[in-house]
């Protein structure tokens, strides 16, 4: 996740559409994923993400008040998604477990571990239970605070702590096992 | 299970959420569990391995086509630029242009910052900072500001931290009073519907003049100048700091509205001030609902939706009135 969000925020506040597109490219997929996890309907999730970005652009004059644009985006996605759910409350209540989450791929720039190893890790991440995977992703990859994830998913901070712990434990076990079984490893 | 506890603590350590007590606990647990201690480095490695969702380009493009038409042409100025009506007209009409006083070498360009609700921080061209409370307007002429004087007009409430600049006095016009500053921090409350203009000095020194009077304020002093009564009825009082060492007059500056197991009626009071709205409850039972939380940058709509997540109620926003129903 890029770390020049405040810079983008300033440019968008000044009406810079290029900066807005950069923000979009950076957050479209993560926000879509969160929306999907809440509404579990692809079409609806896409509409929600579009609504979020349109709202950001329309209210860009207020952007200087938002101290944390990233959180603002996630919170807006959650709020709009909950609105959709309320509007379509006649449809069944959806659980995170049913949400379809996208596949993971390895960032090729990462040189920390071999390509093969990264594939294993990412496959392992893909095998985590959906809620666990989403929480882990929001904390580790999107850099959200435990408190923020708890608010987004309407769960307790304890649950976030537990799920991150479980994910880490499972992944580490898997990786330790893989390293031990690789030729040449001691 | 203590083993799971280690993993929870490791997660908190990697994500930077760990407290020093938990950090000590983790080191202790790791000493007792060499197995986990050995895989700690693996775990750290996993944490540092960037993963990335497979971006669905087609899907991203599809959403973008819905968003893009909503983007109007570029606008460069972040702040609302309000040209004086005459000046704006002058630009398009030669006739009025003739009527515009020609001796005026530069057209005044009025910079206006307004906050309808919430708070906003404004940095003025000289580096001075103004925190605007809700429903507040601050205006200055961009062309003349800082040349001889630094002159601004305020309606509403603001806290100022004025940059020192000897030779260019800072002057604030608020209601019937005028405040001269050289470099200091103070709060001015001058809403049009207030019965007085309140000036509270935090540090430095300011002189407040109104009609033919001038009052010099010392730090932690508050001056109240009534709007309707004769200006001689002003009050100069010394303020006491509250338990947190802050002057109550500037507590609105704290960026958050915090409520802890507050009854809805209490919370509604706080939110009324925060957002400048009025609450109407359908039944007293609703007023007894209790909430805990923090409102930060959320809009009233977002804040109410957040509250709905913990207790069932309905709301309707109609202008400045909020109706809470069962």
Describe the structure.
The complex is a heterodimer of chains A (186) and B (326). Chain A has 186 residues and is mostly helical. Chain A has 8 helices and 1 strand. Chain A has helices spanning 5-13, 17-39, 42-58, 69-87, 115-126, 130-140, 146-153, 157-181; one strand spanning 104-106. Chain B contains 9 helices and 20 strands. In chain B, α1 crosses α2 (20-32) and α1 (2-15) runs parallel beside α3. Chain A: Residues 29-88 form the RNA polymerase sigma-70 region domain.
Query: Assembly type of the shown chains?
Result: heterodimer
Most extensive chain-chain interface: A-B, 70 and 53 residues
Q: What is the C-alpha radius of gyration of chain B, as a whole number of Å?
A: 27 Å
Number of helices of chain B: 9
- Rounded average pLDDT of chain B: 76
**Structural class by secondary-structure content of chain B:** alpha+beta
According to CATH, what is the class of the largest domain in chain A? Mainly Alpha
Q: What is the string of SSEs of chain B from the N terminus onward?
A: HHHEHEHHEEEEEEEEEEEEEEHEHEHEE
| Estimated structural class of chain A | mainly alpha
| Helix coverage percent of chain A | 55-70%
User: How many domains of chain B, as an integer?
Assistant: 3
DSSP strand tally of chain B: 20
Please indicate the percent range of residues of chain B in DSSP E strands (runs of 2 or more): 25-35%
Distance between the termini of chain A: 35 Å
- Give the biggest beta sheet of chain A: none
Shape category of chain A:
globular
Please provide the count of β strands of chain A: 1
Task: Provide the fold topology.
The complex is a heterodimer of chains A (186) and B (326).
Chain A: H1 5-13, H2 17-39, H3 42-58, H4 69-87, E1 104-106, H5 115-126, H6 130-140, H7 146-153, H8 157-181
Chain B: H1 2-15, H2 20-32, H3 34-48, E1 51-53, H4 57-67, E2 81-83, H5 85-92, H6 94-99, E3 109-115, E4 120-123, E5 129-132, E6 136-141, E7 150-161, E8 170-174, E9 177-181, E10 185-190, E11 196-203, E12 206-210, E13 213-217, E14 221-226, E15 235-238, E16 257-263, H7 264-275, E17 278-281, H8 284-287, E18 290-295, H9 300-308, E19 314-318, E20 321-325
Parallel strand pairs in B: 7-8, 17-20
Antiparallel strand pairs in B: 2-3, 3-6, 4-5, 5-7, 6-7, 7-10, 8-9, 9-12, 10-11, 11-14, 12-13, 14-15, 16-18, 19-20
Helix pairs in contact in B: 1-2, 1-3
């Amino acid at each position: 996740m890029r770390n020049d969000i405040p810079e983008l925020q300033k440019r968008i506040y000044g009406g810079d559409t290029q900066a807005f597109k950069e923000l979009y490219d950076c957050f479209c997929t993560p926000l879509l994923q969160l929306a999907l996890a809440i509404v579990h309907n692809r079409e609806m999730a896409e509409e929600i993400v579009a609504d979020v970005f349109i709202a950001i652009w329309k209210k860009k004059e207020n952007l200087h008040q938002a101290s944390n644009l990233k959180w603002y985006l996630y919170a807006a996605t959650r709020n709009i998604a909950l609105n959709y759910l309320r509007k379509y409350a006649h449809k069944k209540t959806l659980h995170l477990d049913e949400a379809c989450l996208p596949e993971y791929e390895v960032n090729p720039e990462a040189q920390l571990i071999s390509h093969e190893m990264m594939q294993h890790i990412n496959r392992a991440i893909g095998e985590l239970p959906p809620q666990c995977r989403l929480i882990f992703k929001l904390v580790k990859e999107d850099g959200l605070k435990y408190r923020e994830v708890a608010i987004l998913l309407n769960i307790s901070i304890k649950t976030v702590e537990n799920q991150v712990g479980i994910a880490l434990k499972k992944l580490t076990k898997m990786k330790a096992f893989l390293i031990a079984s690789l030729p040449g490893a001691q | 299970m203590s083993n799971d506890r280690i993993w929870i603590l490791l997660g908190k350590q990697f994500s930077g959420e760990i407290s020093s007590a938990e950090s000590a606990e983790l080191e202790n647990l790791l000493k007792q569990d060499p197995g986990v201690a050995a895989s700690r480095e693996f775990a750290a490695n996993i944490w540092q391995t960037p993963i990335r969702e497979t971006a669905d380009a087609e899907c991203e493009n599809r959403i973008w086509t819905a968003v893009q038409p909503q983007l109007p042409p570029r606008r460069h100025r972040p702040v609302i630029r309000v040209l004086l009506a005459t000046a704006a007209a002058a630009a398009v009409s030669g006739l009025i242009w003739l009527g515009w006083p020609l001796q005026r070498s530069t057209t005044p360009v009025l910079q206006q910052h307004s906050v309808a609700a919430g708070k906003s921080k404004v940095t003025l061209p000289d580096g001075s900072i103004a925190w605007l409370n809700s429903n507040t307007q601050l205006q200055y002429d961009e062309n003349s500001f800082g040349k001889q004087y630094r002159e601004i007009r305020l309606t509403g409430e603001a806290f100022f931290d004025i940059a020192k600049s000897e030779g260019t006095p800072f002057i604030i016009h608020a209601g019937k009073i005028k405040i001269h500053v050289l470099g200091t921090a103070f709060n001015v409350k001058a809403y049009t519907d207030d019965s007085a203009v309140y000036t509270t000095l935090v540090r430095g020194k300011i002189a407040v003049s109104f009609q033919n009077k001038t009052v010099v304020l010392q730090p932690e002093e508050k001056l109240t100048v009534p709007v309707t009564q004769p200006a001689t009825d002003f009050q100069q009082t010394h303020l006491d700091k509250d338990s947190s060492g802050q002057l109550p007059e500037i507590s609105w500056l704290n960026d958050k509205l915090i409520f802890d197991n507050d009854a809805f009626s209490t919370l509604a009071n706080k939110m009324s001030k925060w957002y400048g709205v009025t609450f109407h409850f359908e039944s007293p039972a609703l007023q007894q609902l209790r909430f805990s939380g923090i409102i930060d940058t959320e809009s009233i709509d977002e804040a109410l939706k957040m509250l709905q997540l913990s207790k069932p109620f309905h709301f309707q926003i109609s202008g400045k009135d909020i109706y809470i129903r069962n």
